[in-house]
Amino acid sequence: MLTDAPRIVTRRLGYDDSYTLERYLATGGYGALRKALRMKPEAVRDEVNRASLLGRGGAGFPAGRKWSMLRPAETTYLVVNGDESEPATFKDHLLIERDPHQIIEGAAIAAYAVGVRRAFVFCRGEFALGLERLTQACNDAYGYGALGSRIFGSSFSLDIVVHPGAGAYICGEETALLESLEGKRGFPRIKPPYFPAAIGLYGEPTVVNNVETISTLPWIVENGGDAFAALGARTSTGTRLFALSGRVARPGWYELEMSKTTFRDLIFDPTLGGGVAGGGELKAFIPGGVSAPWFGPDQLDLGLDQDAVAQAGSMLGSGSVVVLDETSCAVRAAWRITRFFSRESCGQCTPCREGGHWLEKVLRRIEEGEGRSSDLDLVMDVCDNLAPGVSWPPEQTTVCVFGPSIPSSVASAIRMFRAEFLAHVRMGGCPRGRAGGPEAGAR
Amino acid sequence: MTAHFSAENRSRAEALVALYPRRRSALIPLCHLAQAQDGWLCAEAMEEIADLCGVTPAEVYGTATFYDMLHTERVGRHVIAICTNIACLLSGAYELVEHAERRLGIRCGQTTADGEFTLEEAECLAGCDAAPCVQVNHRYVGALSEASFDALLADLAQGERRGEIPRHGVLCRVERAVALPGTAAPSRARRGG
Predict the structure, then answer these.
(1) For residue A160, which residues of chain B lie inside 8 Å, CB to CB?
(2) In the prediction, which pLDDT does A1 show?
(3) Is the Cβ of A109 closer than 8 Å to some Cβ of chain B?
(4) What pLDDT, on the 0 to 100 scale, is given for residue A433?
């Protein structure tokens, strides 16, 4: 069901100049920060707690609780995670390019609420236009008095530095992001400590929040946490920005009320996805980024709800949904996703570095028609070494969750489309045949 | 050590270092600055970056080689990145890669003999609603067909999109205008974009 929930993070995106200070101010921008500065920091935190805002980066951890874990210290930091790289996820990219002031205002609200005076916005390096827009917005926000010392005449001061990434998926993992921000390789840190709120940037307590999470804060301060929590259901409150792609008629971004909207709405509603591209049949869909196990047509009526998707054996993750239709080869899709993991492994932990590499090789030979009848067992054996039991959520074997996420797509592809894998082995290649085999990219 | 950064870029570099509580944090922004100056990250630049960050040149090299965007070998004026990840795969990305390889006479990871084009196969570029997604020097050029790819090459060769797509290495053309408290003002504050 499509609901009449308001647009929260995308409310300004109908304007061509949505990224400018002029448009931001004309649409009520920085009013929430002024309001927050008249409140006590604990009152701002209370609104965010009442909103029950779940982090929008992928893990879905409650934002208010993340804030409450910040260890009191003389120096603390806020880092906004804008290193969006989960395949098929393009919502933060949109928010960075099209509404950078909303991120700055949200960051200032967050910093005020938790008592931070120095913030960094870590922006994925490949977002050149996004970096330019963010930097310009920062300059303009300083000029307007929304950043710097004594913001809007209050006693609160904040500096924000826009920091460019340099191309490494793993830097989206928050401890790898902090290493990268310290000028090092993006190696995830050993846990515990589990949260940078205890030991973060330069060893100081640090809050790391996703771009979309931060972008939601101005609306919550303006309208109250209760108004946000009134949208959605159970723990999945508010609206969320979904990125829809793959074999769908109208790929794009859609901000939808959580829980009450279903995957069927997102993919098939004429005003949203508009159905499968070319009017074909839906074969499967990935519900929350390539680390998530796949779903079949029988799960289309699940709500866009974090708990419901988890109970069904996958995750809402980064809010990106990829549609596969009957023309899509499950083997090729699983191979390409695995190739991504094998390329992006940081290399610290053996199961991930070696396991991803071997899975990619075996899947490639199945796809290229060199597969052996024992290969499916071999693939599942490697998966078991990466995440013992190949269950969901995966058992952890490595420093971060990247490695144990590798089996998700492979294992669900084999579970759902075993006959297709066997046909590749039996027929010496894809039964569909194709012009450009994986060899183009596998060199 | 002889200076590698131009005087103008040296002052930009010092302003970048001043933005961080610890100077090593400026390492990656400085690598981007070196690429903006030279088009790639050469050994002389890494030596100067090491000096600015208080680390060894080997640490700069070891860090830089971890990141896809930092090129420690020469690349073309135009680095064309074609995403082949899941959403783009489903929209014919590998067919486009094969076309690009034929058209340019090089394979992914290689540079044309005239130094104009480097072709890369990219991981997801977060532009999946316009698939297959292509970037030139990290500027999105939209979903491309074989015909529009050829048209893009012709435009790039004739310099017709220079305003929109600067040469490789130039990342963010807007500079920070405000120094942090207790540090020197940026030497060159200007509006760009």
Answers:
(1) none
(2) 66
(3) no
(4) 76
Superfamily of domain B1-75+168-193: NADH-quinone oxidoreductase subunit E (1.10.10.1590)
> CATH number of the domain at A21-229, out of 3.90.1560.10, 3.30.420.10, 1.10.10.60, 3.40.50.11540?
3.40.50.11540
Pick the residue of B84, B86, B104, B140 with the most A CBs within 10 A to test the interface with A by mutation. Answer: B86
**A437, B26: Cβ pair inside 8 Å?**
no
Q: Does A284 touch chain B if contact means CB atoms closer than 8 Å? A: no
Q: pLDDT tens, A86-131? A: 999 999 999 999 999 999 999 999 999 999 999 999 999 999 999 9
Residues of B in contact with A245 (CB under 8 A): 87, 128-129, 131
Q: Are A336 and B89 inside 8 Å of each other by CB?
A: yes
Is pLDDT above 50 for B192?
no
In the predicted structure, residue A203 carries a pLDDT above the cut 80: yes
Who among A85, A168, A441 is closest to B84 (CB)? A441
Residue A70 has pLDDT above 90, yes or no: yes
Taking the CA of residue B90 and the nearest CA in chain A, the distance in Å comes to 6
SS (H, E, C) chain B: CCCCCCHHHHHHHHHHHCCCCCHHHHHHHHHHHHHHHHCCCCHHHHHHHHHHHCCCHHHHHHHHCCCCCCCCCCCCCEEEEEECCHHHHCCCHHHHHHHHHHHHCCCCCCECCCCCEEEEEECCCCCCCCCCEEEECCEEEEECCHHHHHHHHHHHHCCCCCCCCCCCCCCCCCCCCCCCCCCCCCCCCCCCC
Q: What is the ipTM of this complex?
A: 0.95
Q: Do B172 and A135 touch (CB under 8 A)?
A: yes
| Statement: residue B97 has pLDDT above 80 | yes
